Amino acid sequence: MGQRVTTTPGRDAEPLLDMALAWAEQDPDAETREETTTLVARVRAGDEAARVELTAAFDGRLAFGTAGLRGPLGAGPLRMNRVVVSQTSAGFAEYLLDRAARGETETPPSIVIGYDGRVNSDVFARDTAEIMAGAGIRVFLFPEPGPTPLTAFAVRHLGVSAGVMVTASHNPPRDNGYKVYLGDADAGSQIVPPVDGDIAERIDRIAARPLSELPRSSEYTVLGPEVADAYVADTAAALVAGFPRDAAGAVAAGSESDLRIVYTAMHGVGSDLARRVFTAAGLPSVTVVPEQDRPDGAFPTVAFPNPEEPGALDIAFRVARTVDAELIVAHDPDADRLAIALPDATAAEGYRRLTGNELGLLLGWRAAERERVRAELLGTEAAGALACTIVSSPALRAVAAEYGLDYAETLSGFKWVSRVPGLIFGFEEALGYLTHPAIVRDKDGISASADAIAMVRELAAAGRTVWDLLDDAGERFGHFASTQITLRLDSMAAASALSARIREEPPTAFGEVAVAELQDLLTPGLAEVPADVLRFDLADGARVMIRPSGTEPKLKVYLDTFSAKGTAAERREAAQSALDTLAAALRDTLAALQEPVAS
To answer: pTM to 2 decimals?
Structure first.
């Protein structure tokens, strides 16, 4: 006979079940507490699906990194919930107190906490405030849901030691997250290594203690409207100062003309603040998409609340056709990203959205021209840097060279872009733009949208369109064509495994074009920190970048081609033809590798 396993009443032979029950005992949230106990009961009854679900929620811990936390709502250490948020806040508080003890910030340290309109964002923000205050941190909590750029602005405006924004940005509806900024020497930028690892170690140590041992306090300050007022005033002032002037130099170019603009907040928190900025900067009013204008964590009209996703702008297109709009402006739910679309007779919807690279090129060119005018008025040389992430189009390099500006390519993420010395503009192809670094040190869809509206207004006043401006850019800088291939996989681990397989068996050609050089950014010294990115420079001047997503179970492939021969139309056609051929070759290469890894 086998050995008999005995258990004490209420205890299980399986450590995972014991862990889950211990978690439920300390969970302050009735919903996730019941979720846990129900899963345990189902596992005890022999429900294998429940066992898989319990393992996915409890066998490990949601990793804290440079993006903070992000994951699905639910019970367990691998989900976003009140226990995880409280433990994370306690670990971050300990880090800030130690930083103060080293003289790297004020004593006591201080923090501003913002939150968006997602499910439980307000609850997580209050938990963060109470834990921080209980640890002796001076806490400022926003009074209502607001955009991520407002929290990033507040870190610098209030001069605090740190900031937390509770948001999952454009992730699926049942996700939430916890984004961290640092003040002082970090100037309001997101954290970078090794700070993330230091904070993560503290969180792990605290998570081993009962939640009841973490002191809480309601002694924190709830902000009034003054920070939002300051954001509007400072952003509008920076925008207006940079607007091109009319021929007499009296008013902003194009200000006499109006635009029909449709705006969508994508069920997020951007609408009120964005419209205040537009008004303060003297820009046209907008027609909102009514179904998507108020915060709603269920995101009922979109499968993925991300303006990059197919179908996300369908309702905005419909409203735009109704009012004959000349411009569509879309923010993601926390308003740190921006998409614009314009009339296009060749598009089935009647409008085409600019890619992140196209808008990044135009806004970067605009920033370079703004700096040229500023320097000319002062009688100095243009100075500063244009920056983008390594997976964004290299077109910005050509703009920087033309204007005598510095240029930098960083790892993905605005935590790197915002730290480029002398930055005057930065972007990432995933619809992220930083147009006024003196105001905010993170991507800001609100200020970027105001600049985009002004740009379209100026063009309209001259009888021109954005499509004309893109042709101008192609003639001046050469035409850059870009696209992205995204493979959705079963898990983030599967994406990393596929990337590792490509690293072990790197292609020597894509289709008929040979690889001229391969750079593995895991090699120390090739990037700010070693990164899981593979860069292939091809013999014809094209470029391929491959990386697993840091926040979602995806492998992302970025393709760039270039042409500087012939007219703007000929350059566009040549670059696009080369891109189509390269994309087909990449899909063939990945198809041969994907199935064994994804399964």
So the answer is: 0.93
